[in-house]
Amino acid sequence: MIISEIIRIIEKQLNLSQNTINSETTFEEISSWDSLNHAVIINLIEQHFDINFELDEMLDFENIEDIRKAVAQKIN
Amino acid sequence: MINNNEIKFYIEKNLIDFFLIFKNSENIDYYTNDNFCFINNKKYSWPNFILNSNISSKNLLDNIIEISKLIKTNKAPKYWAVNSDLAKEFLIEIKKQDFLPIVKWSGMYLNISNKQNFIVSKNFTIQKISNREQLKNWLKIVNEQIYKTDKLKLYFFEAALKNKSVEMYLGYYNKVPVATSLLYTSSSYSGLYMIATKDEYRKKGFGTAITIHAINKAIEVGNTKFVLHATKLGKPVYEKMGFKEYNNIYIYCKNI
User: Fold this and answer.
1) Domains of chain A: total
2) Nearest to B127 by CA among B173, B160, B165
3) pTM for this one?
């Protein structure tokens, strides 16, 4: 499942406990989510799925579901 | 008639010139060569940017590697402001060198020669900053609303206050300081910076009012060309004032 892989990457990068975030979580709800962590996480997701996001696309993500949709679109 | 390339150039130039007004301040390192420059505060984290306008595909990789070395040895800041007109190969190469995009600003421009009206509560007044007390109040709002920390230090802006190209404005609602703006003019282009409104006073037109006030003051002395660098949230507000997007400035951070 794409979503569980994305969540695992985010939890690892931000040292979050399991099950604290889900597909509906917005970045604003995660206190440690800042602009640098955003960029690092997106970079890790690109590497994990072997995809590349457009520059504007990656800066426009506002929640985990946005990332999931974009990943799904690229790997399909 | 001004062409789009000139507008794009001055959108970036105004930003670079604005940061460089702080280059002679205490604790600041300033470095420049033919291709890029940077301003680096050794004590605080602002205004720390690598700024460039002259990196071409010929010297691309050499410059990125040179900058990376300077960052690794703490000589250069890790934030790099890059304009969207740089070649795509630059954006690919910069990513390979572990620079990650963290922020996008819309480079916007407005040509206007008639003073604008704004409708706002009669209890809202605007003062040009002329003393330290006003400046402290101005800085408190900018730090709280834009930077979420006390990132900007008073001594920088005390120096800026003496700079004739800079004017800072503070908006009061019922005598309480609530909104800020800064106007910086360089090469006949006036840049708008540090536009902020305290959370609890938003949606009352104060941000628009203090922006238009700064524009009107510039028009009074004959300036007609205005630029700003908007965040995603601010862009629709400036579009309503007539500003149009011409390019983007991306802030990259070296992931070290």
Assistant:
1) 1
2) B173
3) 0.90
Is B100 in Cβ contact with A39 (below 8 Å)? yes
Cα distance between residue A30 and residue B65, in whole Å: 34
Number of Cβ atoms within 10 Å of the Cβ of B54: 11
CATH number of the domain at A41, please.
1.10.1200.10
d(CA B205, CA B120): 6
Domain that holds residue B158: 113-223
Nearest chain B alpha carbon to A38? B102
- Within a domain: A25: no
Tell me which residue in B101, B248, B253 faces A58 most closely, judged by beta carbons: B101
- Per-residue pLDDT tens over the stretch B31-43: 998 888 999 998 8
Asked if residue B148 is part of any domain, the answer here is: yes
- Domain housing A58: 2-20+34-75
pLDDT, tens only, B107-156: 999 999 999 998 899 999 999 999 999 999 999 999 999 988 888 999 98
